[in-house]
Protein backbone atom coordinates (compact mmCIF):
# COMPACT_ATOMS: atom_id res chain seq x y z
CA UNK A 1 0.00 0.00 0.00
CA UNK A 2 1.24 3.47 -0.87
CA UNK A 3 2.13 5.82 1.97
CA UNK A 4 0.39 9.09 2.68
CA UNK A 5 2.27 12.17 1.58
CA UNK A 6 -0.28 14.47 3.23
CA UNK A 7 -2.39 13.63 6.27
CA UNK A 8 -4.83 16.10 7.76
CA UNK A 9 -6.68 15.29 10.93
CA UNK A 10 -9.56 17.31 12.42
CA UNK A 11 -8.13 20.60 11.18
CA UNK A 12 -9.90 23.71 12.46
CA UNK A 13 -9.04 27.22 11.37
CA UNK A 14 -11.01 30.41 11.71
CA UNK A 15 -10.96 34.12 10.91
CA UNK A 16 -11.40 36.60 13.72
CA UNK A 17 -13.28 39.64 12.47
CA UNK A 18 -12.79 43.20 13.66
CA UNK A 19 -15.91 42.73 15.78
CA UNK A 20 -14.11 39.74 17.41
CA UNK A 21 -16.48 37.22 15.85
CA UNK A 22 -15.12 33.86 14.70
CA UNK A 23 -15.73 32.67 11.12
CA UNK A 24 -15.32 28.87 11.20
CA UNK A 25 -13.95 28.56 7.67
CA UNK A 26 -12.32 25.13 8.08
CA UNK A 27 -14.15 23.15 10.71
CA UNK A 28 -12.85 19.67 11.49
CA UNK A 29 -11.44 18.66 8.11
CA UNK A 30 -9.70 15.28 7.83
CA UNK A 31 -8.27 13.60 4.73
CA UNK A 32 -5.19 11.84 3.44
CA UNK A 33 -3.44 12.04 0.10
CA UNK A 34 -1.31 9.13 -1.07
CA UNK A 35 2.07 9.54 -2.66
CA UNK A 36 1.63 10.00 -6.42
CA UNK A 37 -2.07 10.86 -6.23
CA UNK A 38 -4.06 13.93 -7.18
CA UNK A 39 -6.97 15.27 -5.17
CA UNK A 40 -9.53 17.77 -6.41
CA UNK A 41 -11.41 20.02 -4.00
CA UNK A 42 -14.79 21.33 -5.08
CA UNK A 43 -17.59 23.31 -3.52
CA UNK A 44 -19.43 26.59 -3.87
CA UNK A 45 -17.78 29.91 -3.24
CA UNK A 46 -17.20 30.57 0.46
CA UNK A 47 -17.19 26.92 1.57
CA UNK A 48 -13.57 27.10 2.79
CA UNK A 49 -11.45 25.74 -0.08
CA UNK A 50 -8.93 28.59 -0.21
CA UNK A 51 -8.77 28.81 3.57
CA UNK A 52 -8.01 25.09 3.67
CA UNK A 53 -5.17 25.66 1.17
CA UNK A 54 -3.71 28.51 3.25
CA UNK A 55 -4.08 26.44 6.40
CA UNK A 56 -2.27 23.45 4.87
CA UNK A 57 0.70 25.72 4.19
CA UNK A 58 0.75 26.87 7.81
CA UNK A 59 0.04 30.44 6.63
CA UNK A 60 -1.58 31.65 9.83
CA UNK A 61 -1.52 35.41 9.80
CA UNK A 62 -4.34 37.49 11.33
CA UNK A 63 -7.22 37.46 10.75
CA UNK A 64 -6.65 33.71 10.04
CA UNK A 65 -5.95 31.58 13.13
CA UNK A 66 -5.17 27.95 13.80
CA UNK A 67 -7.85 26.32 15.95
CA UNK A 68 -6.59 22.72 16.27
CA UNK A 69 -5.79 19.48 14.47
CA UNK A 70 -2.73 18.17 12.66
CA UNK A 71 -1.21 18.52 9.19
CA UNK A 72 1.43 15.92 8.40
CA UNK A 73 3.54 16.34 5.29
CA UNK A 74 5.41 13.10 4.61
CA UNK A 75 5.07 12.21 8.29
CA UNK A 76 6.12 15.58 9.79
CA UNK A 77 3.46 17.50 11.69
CA UNK A 78 4.07 21.00 10.37
CA UNK A 79 1.99 22.55 13.15
CA UNK A 80 4.73 21.54 15.57
CA UNK A 81 7.33 23.61 13.66
CA UNK A 82 8.21 27.25 14.30
CA UNK A 83 7.25 29.95 11.78
CA UNK A 84 10.92 30.15 10.77
CA UNK A 85 11.14 26.36 10.22
CA UNK A 86 7.95 26.50 8.18
CA UNK A 87 9.38 29.24 5.99
CA UNK A 88 12.81 27.71 5.46
CA UNK A 89 12.11 23.97 5.56
CA UNK A 90 8.53 23.43 4.46
CA UNK A 91 7.20 26.22 2.25
CA UNK A 92 8.22 25.58 -1.37
CA UNK A 93 10.37 22.56 -0.44
CA UNK A 94 7.88 20.13 1.05
CA UNK A 95 4.62 21.76 0.06
CA UNK A 96 4.09 24.57 -2.43
CA UNK A 97 1.06 26.74 -2.99
CA UNK A 98 -0.15 28.64 -6.02
CA UNK A 99 -2.82 31.04 -4.79
CA UNK A 100 -5.72 32.29 -6.88
CA UNK A 101 -4.59 34.90 -9.42
CA UNK A 102 -0.92 34.25 -8.56
CA UNK A 103 0.16 35.23 -12.06
CA UNK A 104 -1.10 38.77 -11.50
CA UNK A 105 0.95 39.09 -8.33
CA UNK A 106 4.36 38.78 -10.07
CA UNK A 107 6.38 41.96 -9.60
CA UNK A 108 6.30 43.49 -13.13
CA UNK A 109 9.71 45.15 -12.71
CA UNK A 110 11.63 41.88 -12.29
CA UNK A 111 12.71 39.45 -14.99
CA UNK A 112 11.50 35.87 -14.45
CA UNK A 113 14.98 34.60 -13.64
CA UNK A 114 15.10 36.98 -10.65
CA UNK A 115 12.22 35.14 -8.95
CA UNK A 116 14.14 31.89 -9.27
CA UNK A 117 17.38 33.50 -8.09
CA UNK A 118 15.59 34.74 -4.97
CA UNK A 119 14.28 31.24 -4.17
CA UNK A 120 17.71 29.69 -4.71
CA UNK A 121 19.45 32.34 -2.61
CA UNK A 122 17.29 31.19 0.30
CA UNK A 123 17.25 27.44 -0.29
CA UNK A 124 20.36 26.59 -2.36
CA UNK A 125 22.84 29.36 -1.42
CA UNK A 126 25.76 27.23 -2.63
CA UNK A 127 24.70 27.75 -6.26
CA UNK A 128 26.22 30.59 -8.27
CA UNK A 129 24.20 32.79 -10.66
CA UNK A 130 25.23 30.79 -13.75
CA UNK A 131 24.35 27.48 -12.09
CA UNK A 132 20.94 28.84 -11.12
CA UNK A 133 20.38 29.96 -14.68
CA UNK A 134 21.37 26.57 -16.10
CA UNK A 135 19.16 24.73 -13.64
CA UNK A 136 16.21 27.02 -14.42
CA UNK A 137 16.76 26.78 -18.19
CA UNK A 138 16.90 23.00 -18.04
CA UNK A 139 13.74 22.83 -15.93
CA UNK A 140 11.85 25.20 -18.22
CA UNK A 141 12.85 23.24 -21.32
CA UNK A 142 11.91 19.90 -19.76
CA UNK A 143 8.50 21.43 -19.14
CA UNK A 144 8.24 22.68 -22.73
CA UNK A 145 8.62 26.31 -21.69
CA UNK A 146 11.26 28.15 -23.64
CA UNK A 147 14.32 29.20 -21.59
CA UNK A 148 13.92 32.60 -23.29
CA UNK A 149 11.06 33.24 -20.84
CA UNK A 150 13.66 33.56 -18.08
CA UNK A 151 14.82 36.85 -19.60
CA UNK A 152 11.30 38.24 -19.95
CA UNK A 153 9.36 40.56 -17.68
CA UNK A 154 5.98 39.19 -16.51
CA UNK A 155 4.05 41.74 -18.55
CA UNK A 156 5.70 40.52 -21.75
CA UNK A 157 4.07 37.10 -21.31
CA UNK A 158 0.53 36.07 -22.24
CA UNK A 159 -1.84 35.11 -19.39
CA UNK A 160 -1.44 31.39 -20.06
CA UNK A 161 2.36 31.60 -20.31
CA UNK A 162 2.48 33.71 -17.13
CA UNK A 163 0.47 31.08 -15.26
CA UNK A 164 2.69 28.23 -16.50
CA UNK A 165 5.73 30.27 -15.52
CA UNK A 166 4.36 30.79 -12.00
CA UNK A 167 3.81 27.05 -11.71
CA UNK A 168 7.34 26.30 -12.93
CA UNK A 169 8.82 28.83 -10.47
CA UNK A 170 6.75 27.51 -7.54
CA UNK A 171 7.87 23.94 -8.14
CA UNK A 172 11.57 24.61 -8.78
CA UNK A 173 12.47 23.01 -5.42
CA UNK A 174 10.55 19.80 -6.23
CA UNK A 175 7.95 20.05 -3.45
CA UNK A 176 6.28 16.81 -2.41
CA UNK A 177 2.83 18.39 -2.59
CA UNK A 178 1.61 21.17 -4.86
CA UNK A 179 -1.60 22.96 -3.95
CA UNK A 180 -3.02 24.85 -6.92
CA UNK A 181 -5.99 27.12 -6.19
CA UNK A 182 -8.05 27.76 -9.33
CA UNK A 183 -4.96 27.57 -11.57
CA UNK A 184 -7.00 27.64 -14.78
CA UNK A 185 -9.55 30.32 -13.98
CA UNK A 186 -9.55 33.40 -16.19
CA UNK A 187 -7.70 31.51 -18.95
CA UNK A 188 -8.95 30.62 -22.41
CA UNK A 189 -9.52 26.95 -23.23
CA UNK A 190 -6.17 26.51 -25.01
CA UNK A 191 -4.26 28.00 -22.07
CA UNK A 192 -6.26 25.86 -19.65
CA UNK A 193 -5.21 22.76 -21.53
CA UNK A 194 -1.57 23.90 -21.47
CA UNK A 195 -1.73 24.43 -17.68
CA UNK A 196 -3.24 20.97 -17.16
CA UNK A 197 -0.58 19.44 -19.40
CA UNK A 198 2.10 21.16 -17.36
CA UNK A 199 0.68 19.90 -14.06
CA UNK A 200 0.58 16.36 -15.47
CA UNK A 201 4.16 16.71 -16.72
CA UNK A 202 5.32 17.85 -13.26
CA UNK A 203 3.84 14.66 -11.83
CA UNK A 204 5.22 12.48 -14.60
CA UNK A 205 8.73 13.89 -14.21
CA UNK A 206 8.33 13.55 -10.42
CA UNK A 207 9.12 17.25 -9.93
CA UNK A 208 6.07 17.08 -7.65
CA UNK A 209 4.77 13.91 -6.06
CA UNK A 210 1.15 14.79 -5.35
CA UNK A 211 -1.26 17.50 -6.37
CA UNK A 212 -4.19 19.19 -4.65
CA UNK A 213 -6.29 20.97 -7.27
CA UNK A 214 -8.98 23.44 -6.25
CA UNK A 215 -11.45 24.55 -8.89
CA UNK A 216 -15.00 25.45 -9.75
CA UNK A 217 -14.58 23.73 -13.12
CA UNK A 218 -15.81 20.30 -12.12
CA UNK A 219 -15.13 18.58 -15.45
CA UNK A 220 -11.48 19.55 -15.01
CA UNK A 221 -11.37 17.61 -11.75
CA UNK A 222 -12.74 14.57 -13.51
CA UNK A 223 -9.99 14.73 -16.11
CA UNK A 224 -7.13 15.71 -13.82
CA UNK A 225 -7.62 14.18 -10.39
CA UNK A 226 -7.80 10.66 -9.00
CA UNK A 227 -10.08 11.66 -6.13
CA UNK A 228 -12.50 14.48 -5.43
CA UNK A 229 -13.39 15.95 -2.04
CA UNK A 230 -16.44 18.19 -1.72
CA UNK A 231 -16.57 20.87 0.95
CA UNK A 232 -19.64 22.57 2.29
CA UNK A 233 -19.72 25.27 4.99
CA UNK A 234 -16.21 24.49 6.24
CA UNK A 235 -16.66 20.71 6.35
CA UNK A 236 -15.88 17.83 4.01
CA UNK A 237 -19.24 16.34 3.04
CA UNK A 238 -18.00 13.65 0.67
CA UNK A 239 -14.84 12.14 -0.72
CA UNK A 240 -14.39 9.41 -3.33
CA UNK A 241 -12.78 8.67 -6.66
CA UNK A 242 -13.47 11.19 -9.43
CA UNK A 243 -15.56 8.54 -11.20
CA UNK A 244 -17.67 7.82 -8.09
CA UNK A 245 -18.16 11.46 -7.18
CA UNK A 246 -19.31 12.52 -10.63
CA UNK A 247 -21.33 9.51 -11.73
CA UNK A 248 -22.50 8.09 -8.39
CA UNK A 249 -22.58 10.87 -5.77
CA UNK A 250 -23.94 9.90 -2.35
CA UNK A 251 -24.35 13.12 -0.37
CA UNK A 252 -27.34 15.24 -1.46
CA UNK A 253 -25.07 18.27 -1.77
CA UNK A 254 -22.60 16.43 -4.02
CA UNK A 255 -25.56 15.19 -6.02
CA UNK A 256 -26.76 18.76 -6.58
CA UNK A 257 -23.27 19.99 -7.35
CA UNK A 258 -22.59 17.25 -9.85
CA UNK A 259 -26.05 17.63 -11.36
CA UNK A 260 -24.72 20.69 -13.14
CA UNK A 261 -22.04 18.83 -15.03
CA UNK A 262 -22.08 17.47 -18.50
CA UNK A 263 -18.76 15.79 -19.06
CA UNK A 264 -17.70 17.20 -22.42
CA UNK A 265 -16.49 14.73 -25.00
CA UNK A 266 -13.21 16.37 -25.81
CA UNK A 267 -12.70 17.11 -22.21
CA UNK A 268 -12.37 20.75 -21.36
CA UNK A 269 -15.39 22.90 -21.97
CA UNK A 270 -15.78 25.20 -19.01
CA UNK A 271 -18.90 24.22 -17.14
CA UNK A 272 -19.36 26.28 -14.03
CA UNK A 273 -21.48 25.23 -11.08
CA UNK A 274 -25.21 25.62 -11.63
CA UNK A 275 -26.86 27.65 -8.90
CA UNK A 276 -28.30 25.59 -6.04
CA UNK A 277 -31.32 27.32 -4.47
CA UNK A 278 -30.67 28.90 -1.07
CA UNK A 279 -27.37 29.88 0.52
CA UNK A 280 -24.84 28.14 2.78
CA UNK A 281 -25.14 28.89 6.51
CA UNK A 282 -23.34 31.79 8.13
CA UNK A 283 -19.99 30.42 9.25
CA UNK A 284 -20.07 32.66 12.32
CA UNK A 285 -22.95 30.59 13.70
CA UNK A 286 -22.88 27.14 12.20
CA UNK A 287 -25.91 24.94 12.86
CA UNK A 288 -25.32 22.03 15.23
CA UNK A 289 -26.91 19.50 12.86
CA UNK A 290 -26.36 18.95 9.14
CA UNK A 291 -25.18 22.21 7.62
CA UNK A 292 -26.88 21.46 4.31
CA UNK A 293 -30.27 20.62 5.89
CA UNK A 294 -31.92 23.94 5.05
CA UNK A 295 -31.23 23.43 1.35
CA UNK A 296 -31.73 19.67 1.22
CA UNK A 297 -34.97 18.35 -0.21
CA UNK A 298 -34.54 15.08 1.72
CA UNK A 299 -33.88 16.66 5.14
CA UNK A 300 -35.89 15.33 8.12
CA UNK A 301 -36.03 16.51 11.74
CA UNK A 302 -33.20 14.15 12.64
CA UNK A 303 -30.86 16.07 10.33
CA UNK A 304 -31.11 19.15 12.50
CA UNK A 305 -30.54 17.32 15.77
CA UNK A 306 -26.89 17.02 16.69
CA UNK A 307 -23.67 16.48 14.84
CA UNK A 308 -23.70 14.36 11.69
CA UNK A 309 -20.91 11.80 11.69
CA UNK A 310 -19.05 10.59 8.63
CA UNK A 311 -20.17 7.30 7.15
CA UNK A 312 -17.67 5.05 5.36
CA UNK A 313 -18.49 2.90 2.36
CA UNK A 314 -15.83 0.96 0.43
CA UNK A 315 -13.17 3.61 0.99
CA UNK A 316 -15.62 6.47 0.37
CA UNK A 317 -16.65 8.89 3.06
CA UNK A 318 -19.87 10.88 3.22
CA UNK A 319 -21.43 13.01 5.94
CA UNK A 320 -25.17 12.30 5.96
CA UNK A 321 -27.58 10.62 8.41
CA UNK A 322 -29.06 8.41 5.76
CA UNK A 323 -27.92 5.03 4.50
CA UNK A 324 -26.75 4.66 0.93
CA UNK A 325 -29.69 2.45 -0.05
CA UNK A 326 -32.15 5.05 1.12
CA UNK A 327 -30.34 7.89 -0.67
CA UNK A 328 -30.15 5.88 -3.89
CA UNK A 329 -33.85 5.05 -3.70
CA UNK A 330 -34.66 8.75 -3.39
CA UNK A 331 -32.35 9.64 -6.28
CA UNK A 332 -33.89 6.90 -8.42
CA UNK A 333 -37.38 8.22 -7.83
CA UNK A 334 -36.17 11.73 -8.56
CA UNK A 335 -34.95 10.62 -11.98
CA UNK A 336 -38.10 8.61 -12.71
N1 LIG B 1 -10.12 37.70 5.68
C1 LIG B 1 -11.26 37.14 6.05
N2 LIG B 1 -11.91 37.56 7.15
C2 LIG B 1 -13.09 37.01 7.56
N3 LIG B 1 -13.70 35.98 6.89
C3 LIG B 1 -13.10 35.53 5.77
C4 LIG B 1 -11.87 36.07 5.29
N4 LIG B 1 -11.52 35.40 4.16
C5 LIG B 1 -12.49 34.49 3.93
N5 LIG B 1 -13.43 34.57 4.91
C6 LIG B 1 -14.65 33.74 5.05
O1 LIG B 1 -14.22 32.38 5.21
C7 LIG B 1 -15.14 31.51 4.56
C8 LIG B 1 -14.39 30.60 3.61
O2 LIG B 1 -13.87 31.41 2.55
P1 LIG B 1 -12.89 30.81 1.42
O3 LIG B 1 -12.35 31.96 0.64
O4 LIG B 1 -11.93 29.90 2.05
O5 LIG B 1 -13.91 29.98 0.51
P2 LIG B 1 -13.69 29.36 -0.94
O6 LIG B 1 -14.44 28.09 -0.95
O7 LIG B 1 -12.24 29.31 -1.25
O8 LIG B 1 -14.38 30.43 -1.89
P3 LIG B 1 -13.96 30.88 -3.39
O9 LIG B 1 -14.26 29.69 -4.26
O10 LIG B 1 -14.86 32.04 -3.65
O11 LIG B 1 -12.52 31.23 -3.34
C9 LIG B 1 -16.19 32.39 3.89
O12 LIG B 1 -17.31 32.49 4.77
C10 LIG B 1 -15.50 33.73 3.78
O13 LIG B 1 -16.43 34.80 3.81
From TrEMBL:
> Per the UniProt record, which residue ranges are transmembrane?
none
What are the GO MF terms of this UniProt record?
ATP binding
The UniProt keywords, alphabetically, are: ATP-binding, Nucleotide-binding, Transport
Q: Where is the ABC transporter domain?
A: 6-258
Hydrolase among keywords:
no
Pfam families, per this entry?
ABC_tran, oligo_HPY
Question: What family does the database annotate?
Answer: Belongs to the ABC transporter superfamily.
Record's NCBIfam families?
Answer: oligo_HPY
PANTHER family per record:
MALTOSE ABC TRANSPORTER, ATP-BINDING PROTEIN (PTHR43067:SF3), OLIGOPEPTIDE/DIPEPTIDE ABC TRANSPORTER, ATPASE SUBUNIT (PTHR43067)
What is the name of this protein? ABC transporter ATP-binding protein
Tell me the lineage of the source organism: Bacteria, Bacillati, Bacillota, Bacilli, Bacillales
